[in-house]
Amino acid sequence: MTLYRNTLRRGLLDFHIGEAVPEISFDVPRYMREMAEAGMQTLTFMTKDAFGTSYYDTSIGHKNSKLRTDLLEEAVREARKYGIRLIAYYNVGLNSFVANANPDYRQRDKDGNAVTNAFGYYDMLCLNSPYRDYVAAQLAEIAERYEVDGFFFDITYVWPSSCHCEYCKKWYVEKYGQTPPPSPQPGSVELRRWQQFQKDIRADFLRFITGRLKRIAPGLEIGWNHAGDLAFAHVEPDTLADYLTSEFHPPIYLYGSLLAKWKRTTGKPFELMMPSEMGSWGEWTMAPAATLKTAAAIAIAGGGSISFGHVPIPSGALKGALPPPVVGAMKEANEFVREREEWLLHAESVPDVAVLYGVENRRMIESTSLPNHVDDAMNGANRMLIEGNIHFDVLSGQNLPKKLGGYSVLIMPDQAYVTPEVEEAVRGFVHGGGLLIASQRTSLYGEDGIRKANFGLADVFGVDFDDTSRYSVAYLADFAGEHFADVPDMPVLVKGVSAPVLRVRLAAEARAVSAFMEPAMESKTYRHVYHQHAHPAIRTDDPAITVHPFGKGACVYIAAPVEASFWRTGSPWLRRIYMDCLKLLRPEPLLEVEAPIGIEVNLMRQGTRLIVHLVQVREEKAGGSKTFIEEIWPVFNIRVKIRAKPQSAYLAPDRQPLALVEEGDGVSLIVPEVGLHAMVVLEGC
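Structure tokens predicted for Beta-galactosidase trimerization domain-containing protein (685 residues):
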């Protein structure tokens, strides 16, 4: 499996046309020539669309009636001329052609209603019905008749609140000995079982279909949409994927960075798929070239590759081809990637700071009525660390016990449920010298969603759980020491999160570096001050931030949902407090970058070479609407300090030498200018 490890420039032909247009015109020879000129190394090429129509001469499915040729056959022939490798795109879940002939194959809700308007338009079929044999037969037909290098599956999931079709009901009875519950209650065994059943439908289908294809051609590289996607959080079948891929929709740049930091810890090659259009697929208006290039920079600096989605105009005055500006923008971005490939291929993230994203925690929260800000906490931690110029990875609960020993710092943002295996790994990590930041409910709940009497990691935190606050907002106050010098000398608000702050008791060895202040009152329509929430008024002895030595390591515990509150409010003071906590734990980190908050940092190793990636990421809104990157404004004189002793340093790809200054156990240097992306290459580390 070398294709995805040895290539970085990809495209996705997202050609969902159906049969409503008067014709389908597609000049495949021109398309492949333009894709070659645009620098594409792999193309994911449409074989069956969301309507259920096929784009090749199928003997099993329904070929699109508006096609005069076999598009896949043409694509294979033309791609071979330019050395472009083809991945066969197949839309699994959406198929109106099959649904109309076989209504029993449709996914259904608890009332038996078929899902006929998925995404507003499409019939959603059940992966547990005999439809999966139809899919397997079509995929086998493609694998046996066409020289494709792999497959990409789209829409391989169960629609929310489905599937109660007859086939799933039967399978549920076979698995659990009872009929599926129509309305399982939050916190119940029935809801946890039902949610697991929905995941089992998808996982069983992906196991079944990858096994079929691998028996035909073991060398096929197989992946699917949302493989390695945090928001999807279905990690079990991802072990079967040869590559991981997720949608990445600029201008939501921070999520692309987060995806890369999560995917790269799996050891699998990965891509981020970006529509070359404004925001989403099928908008028929391109995003600015600078936006495409920014997405490419985020993907490659994070250790992955970029895939630009695009669609030729099939009919009308502009029919037959991609608009030239789209081809030009993809070419510009691919050339940007190509110039940097020497320093990208086979590079791996350097373990230093890890953030835990516990899929088990997410599933526990989703099966209960507990306040759910799992995504807010993760997004907040991601944004704070990026804006703090911190290099970090994101670990799953499955990966953490195996990988944690290589890291220096672990962050656990409100991980309410932590598996016993992770608890033991964290305890051993800190005791052996590791550093930990944990917040709010971390390790306070069991798998069943019931609050425990105390934190599972209370001995590591140096605090015991006492109670929850009765107020919807809180204030961090009374900061101790010079570590919080850049925080204003006044209480700092924590709000926007439905989970209250916690009251905790200090262990003998722990010390508080901040305490809570409570508002004057809980605001109601009949009792309030001003028109939001009450001012800080009541000093308490309740520790808000604590420090505790544990074995050879130490832990900072924060009794407030600071990550989620930061994501909701954008409070710069919460970010500064968080960064100060990190400095308090580790005053001399492996890598220090003094840069504006818009500079994302990644540290990669490539043999004896270290590479510091600096990416200028701006995520902005104007009056609440999206803003796209159109121009790149340079920043100057970025100071980089690393605790390593390289033999030389230069900026890639131009190989501009950089002067090294010895500082203690490391070196520092100045990057004179960063536009969109700079690579500091440290040779001989």
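The domain at 3-338 is CATH 3.20.20.80 (TIM Barrel).
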